[in-house]
Amino acid sequence: MGSISQHLAELDASNFKVTRSTTLRDVPLPGSPEELSHSHCTDHMVTVRWTDTNGWETPEVKPYQNLSIPPTASCLHYATECFEGMKVYRGYDGKLRLFRPDCNGQRLSNSAQRSSLPVFKFDQLKKLVAKLMQIDGPRWLPNPGTFLYIRPTMIGNGPHLGVQVPKEALLFVIAVPWPDISSKGLRLYASTPDTIRAWPGGFGYAKLGANYGPSLQAHGQAKAMGFDQILWLFGEDRQVTEAGASNFFIIWRDASGKLELVTAPLENQLILPGVTRRSVLELVSERLSTQSVGSLEPLKVVERTLTIAEIEKAAEEGRIVESFVSGTAYFITPVAMIRNVNTDISTLGPNGESAGYTTLIKSWLEHIMFGKEQHEWGYVIEDGEN
Fold it and tell me: What domains can you pick out in the chain, each with its CATH number?
């Protein structure tokens, strides 16, 4: 599964079968129960079938509908499933954009390989999404400054109960209105040593459903105690990895007084290589590592193993400036505090407020996503079917 066999058809999004819906779904109002449900999808979906005998078939756009899979499907028994999280943005110039979609395409293909599913040419994913949005975008995303959440997913759906590499797979793409998650500061609950999200040699770096299901119980318990997310720790030294389904960042002064932006490394494969994470690191390195921006001092970008004890010590010494998480769902959201066992750690800085780095970084990304800044990361979807 590590490479695309030459005799099998490759994924090709240059041609589609299109079946338009004759019964259009209601577009939910902002803040409505339908939007808050995260499940009220647009009128259409994209599906592409794969078999081990023929490869990828012609992509289809069809009315949104339930899937039909056999009870013996591999995804139901052996977790042969992976997915992506993306957004499509209606720019202030009226154009639809995706943000760095090839990064999502490459990660989905890598996740597919890790879960024994077929790989594909990653640049085809953005074309699948673009086709769906050419049809559904005008009605479901008419207003500038808004977005839809996009969920590309691949499952092993063949009727083969035996423990084996899937002989059939389905790639599908759906779109759903998504509430704008905003918070003045998340409350994080540090995971306990008996609960581990990912481990070296595992699959924490891949976006698999198998990463998320086992974490939901701990997440629910944290929510019941009044927290927003779990801060996942690993190992005897309690390394900080991810916050819920988001990458975690902290800005502090090191022992010499220099400002650092610190986040966990990718090398040990404990965390997901987030597209937003990557973009934050690249923008800060380019725009804020050697020069001030307004009243904000330069930041040194540091990717290294970080422990909860280091964060607690930095808080005690007044060295924390601010903290935030990054991801497609939560975007850029500040972190207010972390509870580690019985200790509450403030991550808002010495004066109880953020210094402004999180707000600046968020604005840089929003300008690219909504077309206020013309940038190579913004992939414009050309007008299509209406």
Answer: 17-179 (3.30.470.10), 186-355 (3.20.10.10)
